[in-house]
Amino acid sequence: MTHVPAAGSEPPARPLPRPTPTSAPYWEGLAGGQLLLQHCRTCAAWIHYPRVRCPACFGTDLAWEAVEAAGVLYTFTVAVRPTAPMFAGSVPQVIGVVELPVGVRITTTIETDAPDLLRVGTAVRGVFDTSEGVALLRFAPDR
Ligand SMILES: [Zn+2]
């Protein structure tokens, strides 16, 4: 993916995550190169995005556990027009939902120079992108 600002102008700043007390462990995990997910100690559900209660049993006994940042494309789209002004230099932008083996689905961007080769079910691996000063989890085809 190339990031080329429009001639003569810089795109507006991209929105970046603002960790909350609930989500901070997720972001800290990414900064350390790990994908941490919440795991309910009551009903064993895996949870993403971070929450204070388990969406399956409403329990609050949640633990953070490291999982492999790898899965398959559950769905995706290729945006050939910027989805917002701050992404003007990032088209085409592949926006996808990745399903992990634990069943969690993560909305993300897919880094690839060949979006035409992507298919639902394509194996993807996490990319811990720190290019914007904060660790973001993107995925790329697992070749
Ligand atoms: Zn639960």
What does this structure look like?
This protein is mainly beta and 143 residues long. It folds into 2 domains: 19-67, no CATH class; 69-143, OB fold (Dihydrolipoamide Acetyltransferase, E2P), CATH 2.40.50. 6% of the residues lie in helices and 35% in strands. The strands form 2 sheets. Strands 6-5-4-7-8 form a 5-stranded antiparallel sheet. The longest helix is centred in the first third of the chain and has 8 residues, at 24-31. The model has no long low-confidence stretch (mean pLDDT 93). The site of zinc ion has 8 residues, from loops.
How is this fold's topology laid out?
Blueprint: H1 24-31, E1 35-40, E2 46-47, E3 62-67, E4 70-79, E5 93-99, E6 105-110, E7 123-129, E8 136-141
Antiparallel strand pairs: 1-2, 1-3, 4-5, 4-7, 5-6, 7-8
Tally of individual helices: 1
Mean pLDDT: 93
CATH architecture of the largest domain: Beta Barrel
Helix content: under 10%
Stretches where pLDDT falls below 50 for ≥5 residues?
none
Tally of separate domains? 2
Terminus-to-terminus distance:
17 Å
Beta-strand percentage? 25-35%
Radius of gyration: 16 Å
- Which cofactor or ligand species appear? zinc ion
* Shape call: globular
One letter per element, helices H and strands E, the order comes to HEEEEEEEE
Number of E-type strands: 8
Q: Pairing-aware structural class of the strands and helices?
A: mainly beta
Strand arrangement, largest sheet? Answer: 6-5-4-7-8
What does the main sheet amount to?
A: 5 strands, antiparallel
CATH classification class of the largest domain: Mainly Beta
What is the CATH topology classification name of the largest domain?
OB fold (Dihydrolipoamide Acetyltransferase, E2P)
